[in-house]
Amino acid sequence: MNIVVCVKQVPDTTQVRIHAETNTLIREGIPSIVNPYDIHAVEAAVAVKESAGGRVTAITMGPPQAREALKEAISLGADDAVLISDRAFAGSDTLATGYILSEAIRKLHSESPVDLIICGKQSIDGDTAQVGPGIAQRLGFTQLTYVIKITEIDAPGRRIVVERQLERGHQVVEGRLPALLTVVKEMNEARYAPLPNLIKAAKYEPRLFDLAGLGLDRSQIGLKGSPTTVRRIFAPTPRAGGAIIADQSQTPAEAARLLVEKLQADRLL
Q1: What confidence tens digit (pLDDT) does each residue in 146-197 have?
Q2: Is the domain of 246 the same as that of 150?
Q3: Same domain assignment for residues 113 and 195
Q4: Has this prediction a pTM greater than 0.70?
Q5: 141: nearest Cα among 106, 97, 104, 96
Q6: Is residue 191 assigned to a domain?
Q7: What is the pLDDT of residue 251?
Q8: CA-to-CA distance for 69 and 10, rounded, in angstroms?
Q9: What is the pLDDT of residues 32-60, one digit of tens each?
Q10: What count of other Cβ atoms lies within 10 Å of the Cβ of residue 102?
């Protein structure tokens, strides 16, 4: 099995602030982390490698410092890593990002056919969940989203069976390989990196794919290739705690009467 896992370096959203005048994220001084959903994608890829054999290649698109995300993937069990980086990629939205990543995977596929792509279901900075499906569409891979369990992989028979997490239950789906999965955090528990992997990761330097090496269409990358427009970004207004009607001296009927009176007073009933 030749597996590609997509990871992304994102700002730690627990410390993100919004610029009051420009309504943009203030990234200066904010530490970067690997997108949490992608950690589970790496764990899923490594688990498939351990059960079915094969090789895991981690890829990411970003500035040079994004190689740290790839080093973390190596420490968690990935065998190889590719940094997709070029100043021309700056400002790419999900459409342009999907195009760039799909072309990078297409190049890897030409070197050794890719059987499986695994992505986190979404990134915590963009929260769109669009890039994974976009890659699958461009490559013509079977698309299986919100995967909570890989039930079976039949590499010779070119089939995969997964369990998907839906709002009202789970769905078991069979698909053809090659396939792209987006996984949820409930799929697994990421293991700690063992010391040999940490040493390997510290010394590891990923391969670099740039604009020239991928032969991309400039009209489909960066700001020029990004039709998405962000009109405004803001932090939601904090909500006050709700009223609590709880008194051991009250009967259920009295508590219900107080609730109805409050809803009527607030014009909610």
Answers
A1: 999 999 999 999 999 999 999 989 999 999 999 999 999 999 999 999 999 9
A2: no
A3: yes
A4: yes
A5: 106
A6: yes
A7: 84
A8: 9
A9: 899 999 999 999 999 999 999 999 999 99
A10: 22
Cα–Cα dist 224/131, whole Å: 18
Q: Would you state the torsion angle of the CA atoms of residues 169, 118, 120, 94, taken in this order, to the nearest 10 degrees?
A: -110
Residue 183 structural domain: 2-220
Here the tokens at position 81 are: 């890593």
Q: Does residue 200 share a domain with residue 115?
A: yes
Best CA proximity match to 17, nearest among 35, 33, 30: 30
The one-letter amino acid code at 160 reads I
- The verdict on 146 and 268 lying in the same domain is no
Find the length of the chain: 269
Q: What is the number of structural domains in the chain? A: 2
Q: What is the DSSP string of 157-215?
A: TTEEEEEEEETTEEEEEEEESSEEEEE-GGG--PPPPPHHHHHHHHH---EEE-HHHHT
167 and 119 share one domain = yes
What stretch of H or E contains 135?
helix 131-139
